[in-house]
Amino acid sequence: MFICNNCLRFLRTSKNIRVVWKTTSFNHFRRSENSTIQVRPNRSFSSSPTVLAKSGDEIDLSRFSPENIRNFSIIAHVDHGKSTLADRLLEVTGTIPKNAKNQQVLDTLQVEKERGITVKAQTASLFHTHKGQTYLLNLIDTPGHVDFNYEVSRSLEACQGVVLLVDANQGVQAQTMANFFLAFERNLTVIPCLNKIDLYNAKPEMVLEQLNNVFDIEPDDVLKISAKVGTGVEDLLTTIIEKIPPPQGDRDKPLKCLMFDSQYDQYRGAVGNVLVMDGSVKKGDKIMSLFSRKSYEVQGTGILHPHEKLVNVLFAGQVGFIHANIKRISDFQVGDTFCHQKSPVEPLPGFKPAVPMVFAGIFPSDQSQLPVLKAAINKLTLNDSSVSINIENSAAIGQGWRLGFLGMLHMDVFCQRLEQEFGASVVITAPNVHYKVRIKGKKNIKSYGDELVDVLNPCKLPPMSIIEEFLEPMITATIVIPDQYLISVLSLCHSRRGEPHEQTYIDQQRMVIRCTFPLNEVLVDFYDELKSITSGYASFDYEDNGYRPSELVKVEFLINKLPVEEMTLISHVSRARLRGKEICVRLKELIPRQMTYVTIQAIIGNDIIAREDIKPIKKDVLAKCYGGDVTRKNKLLNKQAEYLKKLKQVGTVKIPKDTFVNVLRKK
Ligand code: GDP
Ligand code: MG
């Protein structure tokens, strides 16, 4: 989402919108030991022992009324240093000991460590003494990638302010804008920070100019920090306390608490991350979910510091977790309001549901594992509520689900988490977008139940003869590039049926292009190609832009004359032949040679539009490899058998299970 200066001026003059950063600001894990808090001795910024009075094994937070609480998120483009800043804030406040090994400590998931990115918003409660007062600071480290935007938007509901980080070398990027405006729409106080000022090639002046041009932020209002080295981090803490308003809330009112995130715990059931808006909640309280109307007894309350620490009571304005032995996952809904059973309150508005962009069939590799995969998906969606779920049956693969994701990276990460955190092994079908078709003929409309039919799975497309019109999902993309790449980027946009409609300079050399695309054209490899033609300098973000009529056709694929339903795709007529050909060629590369000839065909209706053949393997291909040694031969045969087990059978042809997704990616 990009707003030029003119629009900003308009927004500022508009009566409904309070421009918080001008008026107020710039003068404005997971599980571990449930042990007691470690209070460090006399560091000027460490927690004061007296405020963290303990009752039994639990911390007493009763001294932290809303005036002494600040709830904020760190937001930025990917890799601009959010998680590194979180590390420094944890160290400076004495929450974790200072250590060179503290690198992105809040990225606790295996997938985050392996990929080096944050995919899950993570809360940490810190204590910091400023001018003799100790404050409870709740920070939320957020992901920067567009696919995890729902994490950011939900986190912001539990905050009154944000720290907006901008890399002093890379400057304002696509997700800087998207995340800034998420905070802006919610009237949150924004503390802009230039990060990585330690870098030799940092260009602070250029970035300050961009911040001024794009967001109208005055250069003097921008803090200059290095999250890596720690420069300016203590000043930032002071600014957070002085500029971000405390949460509103009254602990004498009846309990009203917002659950903004959740996860599943094997022993405790669902655990909710909550912001207590009013009242207080403690172990033994009878609370009621306003979503399920069911009541539960609270088994424990705590904060993340950054590991779990039990507290005896959570009071108004505080962020923490509660668990109440909720084992039925369907009763748990992110965005839910909890109250005391005997004091019902008005439910909070909750969250706008996420709008999934990409749909794919997910099936267990082995059908006997269906219940295991079902349980795994249900538990994981507690921690990732942006995934939509529909049951699906495939003639070739069996029973499974059609899941909706916010993007391809989100889909990859979700499937990796299913495997890593729940031991599920899955087959994923080719991803596609959510089309709609308008049906003609009263009789047909009656049998489909509506004139407009949703098509989440291309092989469930109604017959072409009864389709009046196709509607395809559109997006508006924000692309930030150095201007020397403008011509090649525009030509890439045109090749993907993009319609650029706005080009604005944000400094002397960098520009923002706004372009409308059919979502289907950018889904899989657009960003990779954009990065490659701009030597990695482009950034990309997009937002939903409704539906538009389009000329589409169904392309089907046959392997040895047998249809491979999972490969069916819907394409624009102008690109259908090319896509059919490209996919046949990719399939030829991805399907291992078999004992017999394999024919791959792409068809539209009854027309064959492309064909590729895979030659058979010669009979005793292993003969040359073992040279008469029987043990070696057996070893090779075992390896081959193991490999073949991992393949999916289509007729007599065996296909590796990731073929359906890989086939859509360029090499
Ligand atoms: P995130 O995606 O915004 O959470 O970014 P990370 O915190 O994961 O940081 C991305 C990369 O930038 C890591 O390699 C960090 O070490 C590096 N980084 C973060 N802050 C700084 C900084 O102030 N200076 C330098 N030189 N590197 C930094
Ligand atoms: Mg991060």
Structural summary, described in words:
This protein is of the alpha+beta class and 667 residues long. The chain has 6 domains: 5-45, no CATH class; 66-243, 3-Layer(aba) Sandwich (Rossmann fold); 256-340, Elongation Factor Tu (Ef-tu), domain 3; 358-428, 2-Layer Sandwich (Alpha-Beta Plaits), CATH 3.30.70.870; 459-550, 2-Layer Sandwich (Alpha-Beta Plaits), CATH 3.30.70.240; 554-662, Alpha-Beta Plaits. It contains 18 helices and 35 strands. The strands form 8 sheets. The chain has an 8-stranded antiparallel β-sheet, with helices on one face. Strands 4-5-3-6-7-8 form a 6-stranded mixed β-sheet, sandwiched between helices. Strands 23, 24, 25, 26, 27 and 28 form a 6-stranded antiparallel β-sheet that branches. A hairpin with a 3-residue loop joins strand 9 and strand 10 (269-278). Helix 9 packs across helix 10. The longest helix has 18 residues, at 573-590. Residues 1-51 have low confidence and may be disordered. The structure holds guanosine-5'-diphosphate (GDP) and magnesium ion.
SSE topology sketch:
Elements lengths: L4 H9 L6 H6 L28 E2 L2 E2 L9 E7 L6 H11 L17 H6 L6 E9 L2 E9 L7 H8 L4 E7 L6 H12 L3 E7 L8 H12 L7 E2 L8 H11 L12 E10 L3 E10 L1 E3 L3 E4 L5 E3 L2 E5 L3 E3 L2 E3 L3 E8 L10 E4 L17 E7 L5 H14 L4 E7 L3 E8 L2 H15 L3 E3 L6 E5 L2 H7 L3 E4 L11 E16 L3 H10 L3 E7 L4 E9 H4 L3 H8 L5 E12 L1 E8 L2 E2 L5 E4 H18 L7 E7 L2 E8 L8 H4 L3 H16 L1 E4 L2 E4 L2 H4 L5
Parallel strand pairs: 3-5, 3-6, 6-7, 7-8
Antiparallel strand pairs: 1-2, 4-5, 9-10, 9-18, 10-17, 11-16, 12-13, 12-18, 14-15, 14-17, 19-21, 19-22, 20-21, 23-24, 23-25, 25-27, 25-28, 26-27, 29-30, 29-31, 29-32, 32-33, 34-35
Helix pairs in contact: 9-10
Magnesium ion binds next to helix 3.
